[in-house]
Amino acid sequence: MVAVVGLLAIALAQTLGDRLRVATPLLLVAVGIGVSLLPFIPDVDIDPEWILAGVLPPLLYSASASMPTMDFRREFRAIGSLSVVLVVASSVLLGLFFTWVIPDLSLAWGIALGAIVSPTDAVATTIVKRIGVSPRAVSILEGESLLNDATALVLLRAGIAGAAASVSVWHVFGQFVFAVVVAVIIGFIVGRVNLWARSKVEDPTVNTVVSFTVPFLASVPAEELGASGLVAAVVAGLVTGSGAARVLSPGHRLSDSQNWRAIEVILEGTVFLVMGLQLSKIIGDVHTEHQGVGTAIGIAGAALFLTILIRTAYVTPLLLGLKRRARRSERLRPRISDLQERLADPETAAANLVRPADPTRTPRKTPRPRPEPSPERVERFRTRLRRGIADIDYLLAKPLGWREGTVVVWSGMRGAVTLAAAQTLPADTPNRSLLVFIAFLVAAGSLLIQGGTLTTVVKWVKPAGTDHEAEHEERVQLMQMLIEAAASVTDEPPLRPPLIGQVEAAGRTIPADDEEQQALRRTVKGRQLAIIRAQRTALLDARDDGVFSAGVLNSALKVLDADQISIELRGGPPEED
After folding, report:
1. Residue 271: which domain range?
2. SS (H, E, C) 355-411
3. What is the domain count for the chain?
């Protein structure tokens, strides 16, 4: 009965959140806190491993699978910096603060608590997507929240180990490198095997059921080997999201999208609802150990302020570095464009790739031969140039200024990872209930304060949003590309829509044994599906090259998928000759 009431509460919060324009996580946390304080409500005690091992892997997998891989690659420098350097810096600085304000707390335990409250939450960043923030800022926030858990959990383990024995910095660094490298390898292998295996399954329902196992197939082996299961789940999701459109049918991907969205709503809602419901038990534990609630609230408030301050101090030079990178790229663009033009002619492309001899250098007695590169190498180089030009255009078209930086800072909310990680502290941890309570207050406070005021902050600073004029130009270029892709399928003129309609209508009235009409129907649908496949290939090639923005490409892919599903439902794919 409790589970039924919880599901209904999640559905109600989702509905009210959309109508009231309030993020659902905020509503659920507030509801959970209110309910937990009622005297007749029993304490809620959830094993943190259920969240770390059972809830977060599928949530992170789903989020990474839906994230544009090209945007992730382009922003990886910022994402990696925020996910590693900022988490380490925050953990150490907050650890020093906790050691100073909490009596008899060693530095190791202080850093452990700092690691708990340092990572931003992937689920919490869903708030950012609903308020029209720059897609580039959203990509950075999403990527950061997907990867920073690994850094935080490694530091947490190191802090716990350091409280019992001495642990060197190199030991912690080695642990982190091992956890990430092994997780990336496992996640990549699981992602590739996942795509291969699911491409052999014809039933979309069975395909989706198999997809539900993927995050655990990646995370469980990684954890058993001492690596990061969350990073493995993220990598598996990125590999799946990148290759799904080429490998899986539209029906499979549509089924995945709908079912995973339902799973996300349930798991996200459960995490935040339980987060609020646990407040009563945490306060009871603090009272039992005779710790002052008021003192804990003061420490948590100061810690939350410090997290924002440290994040501001880090993001500011990071944005300046991104600006310098954009300026350097702008200076390089003419040279890349010139080289691209020189390689445009297939007859001279190979010769232009051979580096000419340097006249200022003393020639060798027996000069080394300079073989012409193969056509495959030339094409790979052309692809690199196209992607380089597209990356530069992306950086110049979507700069990040102080307005976007303010949103990045204020969107760094803590959430379920913080609370779950706090509850993994050993039972003999000094002042354990106080540390868990502080972590809860920091997470809940960041969600309610930062999340509740984020819309106001966005309205105040007015960051760059979607450039509708540039988006319109992209759609025009994309349409021209689709027309050319369709024309490449056949030299015959395209079938006119009235003819298609007549043939489809005839298929419903003409007897099935009329072979001529049935053959005509198959011809029409065969050509339609061939055109759709050619257009999808062109879109995916453009996606890999970064020619168009992720939003425009995803919209076009959805239209093609809907067209193909509609054609197949009206009569199935054409028979093979």
Report:
1. 24-323+397-465
2. CCCCCCCCCCCCCCCCCCCCHHHHHHHHHHHHHHHHHHHHHHHCCCCHHHHHHHHHC
3. 2
Q: Is residue 387 part of a domain?
A: no
Do 402 and 538 belong to one domain? no
Kindly state whether residues 426 and 490 are assigned to the same domain.
no
445: in domain = yes
Same domain, 168 and 236: yes
Whether residue 392 is contained in a domain is answered as no
Give dist(CA 180, CA 234) in Å, integer. Answer: 11
Residue 422's domain is classified under what CATH number? Answer: 1.20.1530.20
User: Do 550 and 441 share a structural domain?
Assistant: no
Cβ 343 vs Cβ 352: under 8 Å: yes
490/449 same-domain check: no
Task: Give me 83's structure tokens.
Answer: 């996910």
Query: From CA 396, how far away is CA 319, in angstroms rounded?
Result: 14
pLDDT in tens, the chain (577 residues): 667 877 888 888 878 877 777 777 778 878 887 877 777 777 777 777 787 888 889 988 988 888 888 888 888 889 999 999 999 999 999 999 999 998 888 888 999 999 999 998 766 567 777 776 778 888 898 889 888 888 888 888 888 887 777 667 777 788 888 888 999 999 999 999 999 999 888 888 888 899 999 999 999 999 999 888 988 999 999 999 989 988 988 888 888 888 888 888 888 788 778 777 777 777 777 776 655 678 888 999 999 999 999 999 999 999 999 888 888 888 888 888 777 777 766 655 555 555 555 555 555 555 555 566 666 777 777 778 888 888 888 888 778 888 888 989 998 888 778 877 887 888 788 888 888 889 988 988 888 888 888 888 888 988 876 667 777 888 888 888 888 888 887 655 444 444 344 444 444 444 545 676 677 777 777 888 888 888 899 988 888 888 888 888 888 898 888 888 888 877 644 444 3
Contacts of 459 (CB under 8 A, 6+ apart): none
Q: What is the pTM of this model?
A: 0.82
Boundary-marking domain end, from 443, 465, 487: 465
The closest of 14, 46, 102, 126 to 419, measured between CA atoms, is 46
Q: Among 422, 449, 465, which residue terminates a domain?
A: 465
Phi, psi (5° rounding) for residue 62?
Answer: -65, -40
- The separation between CA 101 and the C-alpha centre of its own chain, rounded to angstroms, equals 36
Contacts (Cβ under 8 Å, ≥6 apart) of 381: 343, 353, 373
CA separation, residue 172 to residues 78, 120, 154, 156, 158 (Å):
22, 21, 7, 10, 6
